[in-house]
Design brief:
Blueprint: E1 4-7, H1 11-22, E2 28-31, E3 42-45, E4 48-51, E5 57-58, H2 62-67, H3 70-73, E6 75-77, E7 81-86, E8 89-94, H4 100-105, H5 114-126, H6 141-148, H7 152-167, H8 176-188, E9 191-194, H9 200-206, E10 214-216, E11 220-224, E12 227-230, E13 235-237, E14 240-243, H10 247-253, E15 263-273, E16 284-286, E17 296-299, E18 313-319, H11 326-337, E19 344-357, H12 363-371, E20 375-376, H13 386-403
Parallel strand pairs: 1-2, 1-14, 2-10, 7-16, 14-20
Antiparallel strand pairs: 3-4, 5-9, 6-9, 7-8, 11-12, 12-13, 15-18, 15-19, 16-17, 17-18
Helix pairs in contact: 1-9, 1-13, 6-8
Bound molecules: flavin-adenine dinucleotide (FAD).
Flavin-adenine dinucleotide (FAD) binds near residues 9, 244 and 266.
Amino acid sequence: MNSIVIVGGGIAGLQAAQILQSKGLDFILIEKSMSIGGRVQSEEFKGYILDHGFQVLQTAYPEVQRSLHFSKCDLSYFESGAYVFNEGKFNPFLYPFKSPFLFFKNINSVGASIFDYLKLALIWLKTLGSVSPLNSNTETTTELIARYRFSEKFQRIFLRPFFAGIYLDETLSPPASLFFFYMKQFLEGNAALPKSGMGAIALDLVAGIPKEKIRTGVGVTEIKGKSLLLNNGEKVDFDHLILATDPRNACELLNVTFPDHAHFSSKTFYFSLNKCLETSMPLIHLMPLNSSPLLHFSCLSQVNTALAPEGKHLVSATSLQMEISELEIKKELARVLELSQSDFTFLKSFSIPYSLFKVGNFKQLIHKANENKIVLAGDYTQFPSLQASLSSGRLAAEKILENS
Ligand SMILES: Cc1cc2nc3c(=O)[nH]c(=O)nc-3n(C[C@H](O)[C@H](O)[C@H](O)COP(=O)(O)OP(=O)(O)OC[C@H]3O[C@@H](n4cnc5c(N)ncnc54)[C@H](O)[C@@H]3O)c2cc1C
């Protein structure tokens, strides 16, 4: 029997593992942290459930629909849209087909012109068919937004912060094809949070896998021919290897230089609040770019009450400024929500310097892996998202199934 090893217990590695398990293949998964999930983790802190960085599960992602058990994850949903900050106030900007009454009620206060709505309608039409997340077109999202000539105001208060929040990149450098792909997901599905936090996704994937097949707390330090050297001195032989680490570690293990400027960083702060926000709809609050240290914030307990103890609320606030302090974030939240700083109690923050990776920057790594007959999995092999990590894990498992 050929031996199969998966290195990395993030969503991509776990997806590969659950597919191999379902086909009755033997394997071992090696994860260097003490817990599985990689960049998707949740922890309990003083009765609150905190995700390591603000993330949502897009229910329309094809691979999410195929692989996850929504009923087990017990999902709560954001409304489709966002609070936009216009003239010192947050106004709900809602998807008209899902919330027509509220859309028309707020149509004059969100700061979009009739031409912006018409252009959005054109984009909506384009998302009705099949939309490929990546294609040969080299246009960036910024160029696409400029080409459509959305009003400066609408770009500033909605389009740019909304997509900067998805890409974690203020310059909106990712391909325009991704703009259409993500737009389609938001229009056709919902942004959801599992009851016990995003970490539930990893637990869902791992549910059917026997414990002894997953080894945590031990990392691979070297790949030598058909053997792995582990940081506890052990040597593990393999016939087939799925390398499902993040690209930094994959580059290190395959002796490839990690490209400059190929990653995006973010910092998420959590605060407890005794009262519900006045902007009480389950929507993300967007801040216009370059006007605030905040990129966006949400009262997560208004989406999913299980994330905070009874009578308390949980606010998550994300910034792209890695040096920013909780005090500066608290001051800004108090300013824009017209509350007192003392209303917010800081809980914890998560700095994630390598949050997402730039599309198309890992060709050398992919080439080196192919040369060595090592199968790569991970979102960076496609584009940053749970869709891509699940899909890359599936493709990796299928490649092993073909060859074993
Ligand atoms: C702040 C933030 C916000 C995000 N928001 C969203 C969102 O809203 N929606 C969305 O769809 N996606 C979002 N994402 C992206 C999503 O989380 C990732 O696409 C996905 O988690 C990547 O999974 P992965 O398995 O490809 O990689 P990873 O999660 O990076 O997994 C790699 C694993 O390999 C392990 N590893 C590394 N080196 C070794 C070694 N030498 N030996 C053993 N193990 C090793 C690591 O510990 C890790 O567990 C967000 C990510 C972040 C960080």
